[in-house]
Amino acid sequence: MSASIIDGKAFAAGLRERIGVLASAFEAAAGRKAGLAVVLVGEDPASQVYVRNKGKQTIACGMESFEHKLPAETSEADLLALVETLNADPAVDGILVQLPLPAHMNEQKVIATINPDKDVDGFHVVNVGRLATGLPGFVPCTPLGCVMLLKDQLGSLSGLDAVVIGRSNIVGKPMAQLLIAESCTVTVAHSRTRDLPDVVRRADIVVAAVGRPEMVKGEWIKPGATVIDVGINRVAGAQEGKSRLVGDVDFASASTVAGAITPVPGGVGPMTIAVLLRNTIVAAHRNAGIALDESAI
Ligand SMILES: Nc1nc2c(c(=O)[nH]1)N[C@@H](CN(C=O)c1ccc(C(=O)N[C@@H](CCC(=O)O)C(=O)O)cc1)CN2
């Protein structure tokens, strides 16, 4: 292996520490804690773990956690009513509805109901527009976490060739916008891209967010490139009945060619919740009209 391993778990721990300091200062200045409301509909096991971890980490950082767990058969109207209640609650600075939602609910409609200034997931179309036009808003947590890791690793990203594999609203598209804002030359690749290995081979930065286990091979990677693996895929383990997590990148081969690479688990994943807490403390300051140097977090 030649690549250095980008330790997202350690970076996320450092970020949470900085947020903890800001959260105490916010409480002293505002006379209340910053508050994050997380809504879970249904019993998806992975979502239950993520929501539990969000609650625990929110409290550990000195913020207030409001958890709302609704049964899978909750009507869309009831969920929208809860979101409206949270929009109106001054103790709630950030609102997150855990995805995926049950099939009978329209995710876009639910997201559109969240007040954009409490949309700490950055999924509301107003925040999508703000990101695209360079206005202050909220940026989706996973791609913002990827950019934080990239800047920590490389310093300036200006002028670098970046390939984002995947064009989802949650990761691929905002990732491309963020890299453009960092003055990268960005290519967004997807299932219809012709000669993907050749496209990837030109990139100084590769962000893989396709949801296909170990799809990106070492021989696709330009020597010395920085590889960010957003994939979290559970596959069968070596032992019968056991599973293991792998990314969208074939770590074994890619790590012999890349200059730096994120592992799965322990790379991008832990950044998602840490950045959510970052967005929440930012929302709290904005909502309370208290100044904060957001670029320093
Ligand atoms: N409303 C939202 N829903 C979802 C989001 C989101 O950002 N907002 N992202 C994902 C799930 N997610 C947080 O919600 C999340 C995913 C992964 C991790 C993480 O720490 N992963 C670990 C491995 C965890 C494991 O063992 O399974 C890692 O990669 O090291 C945290 C949060 C979808 N829904």
From TrEMBL:
Domain Tetrahydrofolate dehydrogenase/cyclohydrolase catalytic: 6-121
Example of a GO MF term: methylenetetrahydrofolate dehydrogenase (NADP+) activity
Highest taxon, organism lineage: Bacteria
Catalyses which reaction(s): (6R)-5,10-methenyltetrahydrofolate + H2O = (6R)-10-formyltetrahydrofolate + H(+); (6R)-5,10-methylene-5,6,7,8-tetrahydrofolate + NADP(+) = (6R)-5,10-methenyltetrahydrofolate + NADPH
NCBIfam families registered for this protein in UniProt: PRK10792.1 (NF008058), PRK14186.1 (NF010783), PRK14188.1 (NF010785)
PANTHER family listed in its UniProt record: C-1-TETRAHYDROFOLATE SYNTHASE, CYTOPLASMIC, C-1-TETRAHYDROFOLATE SYNTHASE, CYTOPLASMIC-RELATED
Described function: Catalyzes the oxidation of 5,10-methylenetetrahydrofolate to 5,10-methenyltetrahydrofolate and then the hydrolysis of 5,10-methenyltetrahydrofolate to 10-formyltetrahydrofolate.
Protein's name according to its UniProt entry: Bifunctional protein FolD
